[in-house]
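Researcher: We're teaching a course module on how sequence relates to structure. For the next exercise, students receive a sequence and then see the predicted structure as tokens, so they can try to spot secondary structure elements on their own. Here is the exercise chain.
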Amino acid sequence: MINMEEEFHQLRSRVTDQEGWLPNLIWAMGDPMESMGKVATIALALAAVSFAERAAAEGNCPPGYYPQSGQGWQGCAPGPHAGGEMQAPRVVFDGYWQKTWGALAASATGANGSGASVSGLATKDEAAISALKQCRANGGGDGCEVNFVYFNQCVAVSGPIKDDLGRTFFRGGKDIETASRMVLADCSSKAGSQCEVVLTQCSEPIYHKY
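Model: And here is the predicted structure for the students to work with:
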């Protein structure tokens, strides 16, 4: 004798027409008048299973939407059958990125080693002023000038290995390796001699949670 659980699974596999599933179910059960109680029970079970599967797939998102997440955010995006016009994902940020600035300064008239480099400053002006102050404090005097200002990246400084002109080249890049490769290429091309990297520095963004 087939028990209720086996009968439920058999009927569920047989009822495939989404629009006419209830008549089909009644037909499969036999006499409608004698089987209405059983039909109602199985219909409720099918609805519960469908709802549970849908809720599991959609997480805590509204019906028709699915969870999405990334670094520092999570939200819900419309599924292929969400209906209506396509909407942008609802993004919830848990923090923000702070841009940081760096600067290089040097003096053409000051003592050797009077150059300065700073990083991690909140604004472009702060970085430039800080580099100038450090250059002057290192003995550069009034000849100090800001040579390079950058943010959220790295910088490399290069010069010819044998050069009496004091030529210096600067390049920024996503990391030290990239910046160094580009500045060496610039230096060699423009100076016409072998060059070396004399300084590298990075000023990276800072993530703050709310």
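Model: If you want an answer key for the exercise: Helices lie at 4-14, 21-29, 32-58, 124-140, 176-191. The radius of gyration is 35 Å.
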